[in-house]
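Job type: complex structure
Entries:
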Amino acid sequence: DAGVIQSPRHEVTEMGQEVTLRCKPISGHNSLFWYRQTMMRGLELLIYFNNNVPIDDSGMPEDRFSAKMPNASFSTLKIQPSEPRDSAVYFCASTPTGVNTGELFFGEGSRLTVL
Amino acid sequence: QKEVEQNSGPLSVPEGAIASLNCTYSDRGSQSFFWYRQYSGKSPELIMSIYSNGDKEDGRFTAQLNKASQYVSLLIRDSQPSDSATYLCAVKASNYQLIWGAGTKLIIKP
């Protein structure tokens, strides 16, 4: 079975540019999470979707960040405009309905560098 | 503020010995506890989950939970160099919210 698929794996961009990160969850998984990981702050939950509906976006740092899940097999995280402090690894994770939502399957991550 | 605390390490253990990783949490109402392993440059991978007091064994791994003392630990028996990684403790504080520790870096020396 294919795992959680994220793209791009690496993104280098300049401050002020728009960044779009993409995620395909595992088929049949109804819960999707976007996380950000940095050395300073560790893993931070940005947003949580259940059945394509955003349940909690309180972790989204500011209005520059937005996330969508138009269908069960695709989600995007957009940063516009990007800033150097957004540099981090962004992970998407999914879990099936009925399974304890602490048992997450992570994608390989998207490493973002904003110059 | 709900917190999960881990010693950042690095914890250095000789090959073949037992590695002991510890985690404490602040929310007494927490019910579910998880250990994830993260290799350098890779994503976190679930290795153990534990939901009730006591020990849970899976191969060389044993998770221990003590809710009264609010700690959870992970023991790795017969440590191998391939066990060298950062181990993240996560505690479920609500229906979906995981509270993550900062991780303990484990180094297994051949």
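Summary: Residues 33 and 91 of chain B are 5 Å apart (CA to CA). The mean pLDDT of chain B is 94.
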